[in-house]
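Tutorial handout. Part one gives the primary structure; part two gives the three-dimensional structure as tokens.
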Amino acid sequence: MKIVIIGAGSVAFTPAILSGFSTDKRYRNSTIGLIDVDKEMLELVRKFADRISREFHQNWKIEASTDRRDILGDADFVTTSIGVGGVKAWQQDLDIPYKHGVIQPVGDTSGPGGLARALRHIPLHVEIAKDMEDLCPTATLFNFTNPLTAITQAVNRLTKIRCVGLCIGPDITWSHLCRIIGVDKAQTTAIIGGINHCHWVMDLRIQGQDAFPLLHAALDEMQGDSGRADKFRKEFGGLVKRPHEPSADQPLCTRLFHMLNAYPGPGDGHVAEFFPQLMTPLIGNVEHYQGEAIKYVYESYPKLREKMIATGTHDAPIDTEDFAKELAWEHTQFLDILASQQGNLGQVFHVNVPNKGYIHNLPDEAVVEVPATVDKAGIHPLALGDLPLPIVPVMAHKLASIDLIIEAAIEGSREKAIQAILNDPHCTDIDKGALLVNELIEAQLEYLPRFRGAA
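Part two.
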């Protein structure tokens, strides 16, 4: 088996992937391909992989290069976790719109930040997939890069490579709701679907019983109103000892759930970027949300980098289980999907794939986030039918602009990029919207070769 990791220098992704592989005999004698444009980080990851292979007797063949065509040949699985321009460009995605009055907690999917990231990342992923057509045409590309919907749609639409977008968001939301209620997740089932970073829990059950009334009551209780909660204490004992979850205060998601009877996720930070017009009325002072996600990166990534350096070059003790748990994020889903496929387990995961009737009232071929079973035959998305009408408009509106964003990125068209932002709910002024897009493009021309010379 050959697994290729593009963007291998990511300290939040690659070490945990390799740690997960290290104790699984299925990956013994595998080829691990590492690709990154940062030579220093690539060499560090290569040393890390080599040490894990030796200490856990995996006998990996490790290939590393800054040129992906050196590595992609005969790959079975390819992953992308890429940040063109790195944290510097991401900071620009946040700071430049903020000057124009746009608040973005994350800035990686919707709004001007999501658009700027799409312009940087879509062409590169299409080029990667084109190389895969030549060198590993039967491989599946698992994309973790944001904006995940737009990139995954571009690759599937413009190349012959099957691209599956992976995000742990639906599972995070499901777990979050179980903690709010105070119930073991294993006792619950959930129906979750939508689009990436704007998925919806449309049904939640505890041992087959509808848990939405209990969820409404538990959320009320967190806000200081225990009236409805008392009604359920005899029926659901878990509510009696329900611990308060410190991170559970998601006022926007909570209010939308009460109004629409479907719970959005994964958290206010992402959901607010699909409902920017509701941020102030529902959340109040939104200034502290600005750049919420990148603040975490600044705090956590230097520590992760130092840990990888110590492990890869200084013979620090390796505890792969702890190391992987520390970084338990999207990588765990990828590892579990591979295990389910190789073991023919038929487990269910949430994936982002072109809509082929899975969600009836969202556009065909648009990338949607749906559950899927995974076995030896591959990934089999499940049909959800029609989504509840109250939650459809926000997703349909976002999906309607994806092809325009793809065209803007591939053609290097400022005109289409501006047209895209004018159709985004963050934009409330035509002239400011155009100015904002041009300012972002000018600031990032070094990462946008297709836009050089474009008016």
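Part three, for discussion. The radius of gyration is 22 Å. The mean pLDDT is 90.
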